[in-house]
Structures are given as C-alpha cells and as structure tokens.
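A common beginner's mistake is to predict each chain separately and then try to dock the pieces by hand. The better habit, illustrated here, is to supply every component at once so that their relative placement is modeled jointly.
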Amino acid sequence: MTTLLRILCLGLFAAVGFLACEKAETIEVRTIPAEPSPPQSWGLDSPFGPEKERFSINANGGMGMATVSLTVLQGDGGGLLGNVNRWRGQLGLEPLNETNLASGVQSVDSLGSEARLVDLNGTSNRTQLDTRLVGVIVSRNELTWFYKLMGTPAVVAAEKDEFLKYLPDWR
Amino acid sequence: MMNALKANPIYQFFTSLRLTVTLLSISLVIIFFGTLAQEPMGLNIAVERYFKSFFIDSHAAEAGWFMLLKLFQMEGTPLTPEKIINPGWPVFPGGYLVGSLLLVNLLTAHYARFELSAKKAGIFLTHIGIITLLIGQVFTDLLQEESFVHMERGDRRNYTVSFDDNELALMLPTGASNRVVSIPETMLKDKINIQHPDLAGLTVETEKYWRNARPMTVSQLIDLDRDEQQALRQVKVDQVFAVIQTRITALEERLQQSPHPENRKALTALKGRAFQQRAEAVELRSLASLLGQVGEMEMEILGLGESDKQLIFNQKNLRDMLVAARTFDDQRTVGDLFKGAMKGNLPKGTLEELNEQADNFVPTLRAYPGGTGEAMVKAAGEFVIRIKKRAEKFYTGTTQGKLGDYFRFVQPLAPAFDQNDRNQPVAVLKISHKGEALGTWMASCTSEFQQSISVGDQKWKLILRPKRHYLGFHLTLVNLKWEKYRGTEIPKNFQSRVIVEGDSELRPVDISMNEPLRESGQTFYQYQMNQDQLGATVQTVLQVVKNPNWRTAYIGCLVVALGLIYQFLFHLIGFARKRKKITA
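With all components supplied together, the output reads:
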C-alpha cells in the first residue's frame, strides 16, 4: 500500500508539474480571407476631419488629381437628401428637394438595395476648378458609409470603375 | 500494513496538517510579495515569476523586497531592467510548487483519514471541490488566451490582438485567401534558423533583434543627437538657475533683517523674471542678462563691489556652466547646419553616404561665403566624430524592403514593463530561398506596412506585428457610450454597441462593464474607452478571454459550497435531534 501511495503522489506531482511547464511557442499556419487592397494608383493619404480613410490619386501626364475618402457616421448620418445637397453645394449646384431627389441618385447593385450613388459635375467652391464628384451613400447596420471620389473630371472618369469595384470590400 | 505506512516519515510529512498550514502561510507570503512586485516588474512578469513558477527567483524576490522597503519609506535599490527580464537563482517556493504540494497534501490526507460515511460526506465533497479548483487553475493557466480588440465607429474586425505577444507574419496570397505563416517573436529573439514546409523553401534567419526599439531615418538620427545636446544644455541652465535662486533667497533674508521697500520691490520683480524665464525655453543671452541684474541687486543690497569675488558673475564655476551651456548650444546649431547641408540626400542615406557627407561637412562649413568662426568649425568637428560613431552603432545594413530603405538606423530603447506600455520589437532578417540569399529586411512592430518578398512568381508579404487571433466571425462597432457621474470625471458606464456578423446571423449586441458578449467560446468584456483631443469618445477597447476551462472554477466552487452546506446541515440536524431527545 505504501508503494502504491508513493506512486500515486509522485504521479500526481509529476502530472501537475508537467502540465504547469510553459507551453513552447511554435509556428502556426492559418488560412484567412484575403485582405482587400485598394487599386495600385491610389496613394495612402492622411484622413481629414471625421474621415476614416483617405487616398490621393495623382494622374500621370499632368491630367490632374483626385481624392478618395471613406467616412462612417452613426444612424443616417444626416440623411440622404442632406448629404446629397451638401455635396452639390461643394460644387456650386442647386440643392434638390424630396420630390426631385430620386431623379438625382442612382442605385449601386454591388452594394445592396440601400446604396445610392450621385455623379456630379460643377465648379469646386474651394479651388474654383472644374470638378467631378462620385459619391456613394450606404446605410447598413445602424451606420451610414460615405464613399467619395472627387477631383479633376478626367481623373475621376478614369478611376470611377476601379472605385466602384473596390467599394464592396472597403469596410 | 497500515501501521507500517503510518510510521513512514514521508507519509507522515504529506498527511500532516502542519504541512497544510505551512503551505497556506507560504501562499500568503507569495501573494503579498507578488502583488508588491507588480509595480516595478509589471503585471505579467510578476505573475509569471511569482505565481506561475515552481520557485521565485532572487531578482523577483528583490523586487518584492524593494517595494516592501518603499512601503515603509525606507531606502532600497531599484531593480535594473536586466534583472527584471532575466531570472536569478531560486530562493523561495513559487505558486506552482505550493499548489502542487497542497494538492498532494490534500489527496494523501484524504486517503489517510477518508471514511465513507454520511457524517463525513460534506468534508469529502469540499475536498473534491478544492482539488477541482487547484487542478482547474493549472489548466486555465495553460489554455486561457487573453487578447483585445480596439475599434472606432464603423470598424469591422475578424481578429483580436495579443496584449504582449508579437508574430512575424509571412503571407502568401492564394486567390480569395491568404496563407499566413505566423512565427512567434521568441524564435526571432532566440535567433533560431526558421524553416517550415509552408514557407516553400524560404529560410528566415535573425541577424539582429531588439526587444524594444525605434527605427530611425538619417534625419531622426541627427535629431536624436540634437535632443541629447539640448538635454545636456538644460542641465547646465538648471544649475545656473539654482545658483540664481540661492542668491535671491540670500538677498531676501538680508532685506528681512534690514527692510528697504524699493529694493524689496525690485527684488520681487527680479524673482518674477527668473521664474518666468525658467518656465520658458530660455536663451543664453537672457540668462546672462538675468545674472547681471542679480549682480546689480547684490551690489545694491549687500554693498559688494564690481570686482568682489562673492559677486554672482565673478564666480568661476558659474562662468564654466554658461560656457558649457554655450558649447551644447553650438552643437545643436551644428546639427541643424548638417541637416541643411545633407538636404536632398535625406532620408535614404546609407552609412557610407552619411560618412562621406560627414567628412565633407567641415570643409563645406569653412567654405561658407563670409567664412565661419573657428569655434563653430571646432564644434562641427566634434559633431562629425559623434554622429559617425552613433551612425555606425545604430546602422542596420538592410539590403531589401521599403522599411529598411527608409529607416536605416535603429535606436534601442529600455524595455517597457508597465501594463499600459508595449514593447515594440525590431529585427533585421536574413532571408534566403533554397539556399540562395535574397537579402536582409527590417521588420518592426512600429509600422503596419507590409513589405514584399518576391520569389519567382510568388509574392510574399512580411510584417512584424502584435499576434492576431482570428475569430471566425466579424464584429462591427456601431456606437459607443461613456457616461460619467454628473459633475465628475468618474465613469458610470462604458458601453459599446457592436454588430456580430456570422455566416448565417447578424445581430446587434450592447457590451457594457458587467454585461460581456459571449460568442464562440470567447468572452468580450468592455475594457477601455479612448477620447480624441476634443474630448469626444472615439475608440473602444474590448478585452477578449478564451478559456475552454472556464466551467471548472464554477463547478469547483459549487461542489465546495454543497459540501459545506451539507456538513453544516448534517451537524445542525444531528444537534437538533439530540436536543429534542434530551428535552423529551
């Protein structure tokens, strides 16, 4: 019985000791969903104000430049009409009202039924240059995402497709 | 047989109640000193070295002892960072040893005194509960993972980040997914030659490793020198101010003995100027002017002559302090001039280029239109020697990668031990593919930039970052709330509203201080809230605990409670029956 007890004690002691020894760190291999990356022509820029992310595009050959930004606000973020008119105001365009809002916005299939797109041309209040703005507003999960591509019309025209292609991954 | 066993000294030792009391007393000592040691050593290191080890080492014990002395306002020697990192000799039983012995003691004592009867069933249950708790703690230590996730409004995460551990991640995009080979930082620290079947022939060798460091550009290297010269200058300026303060105090004492309203007014104004200058980044010219005014007051109040040795500006040591401060000032200026001369070659300078620029600096300075004073040329010579020496010491010598291209130098920093600080490791890695050298890369936890390694058609990404634990679902932060008790800064409630996005479900959840989110075997506790400069709450931090063994503690406590209740009721009922009999 003494032997049995000794073996039992030693066994337990050794088991706890073994378990308590530090776990050796080893190499781990994981497979994760690919992280979306922005188009190559976009350069990372510093976000301005409430923006979450900002990119700048400098087109070759002095074509001009454009910026791409993402802002996320809680709730409806001021509403579709208010934000469309804010963007129109930045380009010196007349505001829309509830009745003609629908004619000024388009849907974006890749972003779901809630997404609305505006494509505006005007003169920037800030630079006084011809400017084009492609903006997308998406309300989703109690938040509203504002995606904006704005700059020289030629650059915006060249980047619009890439911009719309990247949006579903950009969250 | 049983008698022989009872006579065995080992049996007696393990079954004795004295051992139980001794072990419990030792536990108290460990908990007391382990708690004290958390201040100098940091929470994690103290827990590891006191509670999660078989023996407490001499350095950890020293930390506890130092804090005890401090508690009683006695002087002790604080621990050096080396001692905090490196364990010393074992000097006292640690948490695991005491826990293991308690377990053995409990089991053997139970064996020796065990008697299966209704009378002792409560004690039996209580012991089972304690054993469950002791063993459960070991499993918790082994299996529990703690991490955190920080998010701003709108952020969507499918991973959490380790509090302390870092990983060198080598990623290979494979269509819609990425294969990530995560190499623990400890392997870089130990300079292990890293090979793995999933690395497809890549070998990673650590050439240099710093536990906590700051990558620097050439420009930052020069700024570092400038900051050091500024700090040395400040020491001298502080010394001059200390002398001025002493002299003003002496003058005030004299005026108390022999009052003079006008002199008192002038001295008060002078004292005000001295305070104002001390609070500002003082120019040496203003400091000299202040000294002159103090000297004039000394002549006026103490009646000293201009050549009197006691007069403040006739003191040699004070003049020496000013000259030294001036020298450090010159060194700062020279640093700025060097940066100006290097313009166009910054920040991509290699060590050879920097040395060449440094060697050309003094001749360039001499050739400045209008000439340069000899003092400045001498200062430039000293600067060149110093900057070359420092550049050589901090140079990484990487040949590949954008990070190493931009940051050519690394400044080692003292390791961080505080719970709120995090070490930022940097490593210089030699990477080869099937024996063919590809070059050396710098990897640093200070940058989220993913560098590329091209091997044939494959384009690997490389990054050193805090270790990630992937969740298997997404969390999106929708809103956060930081409520305070009215009129105070005391937090009343921290609350984060998140959207949990699984494969088939999407649900909003409010996480607050006492209401964690439990999802997929992990618990998300509200941990911190951060504000921006305008005081708006912008960021939430959730602590994530994954403990597959979490039920053990509850089961253990429940069994102990049941045992105690049973035992209490058994005796109570027995006592009541006995009393009833006596009364009858």
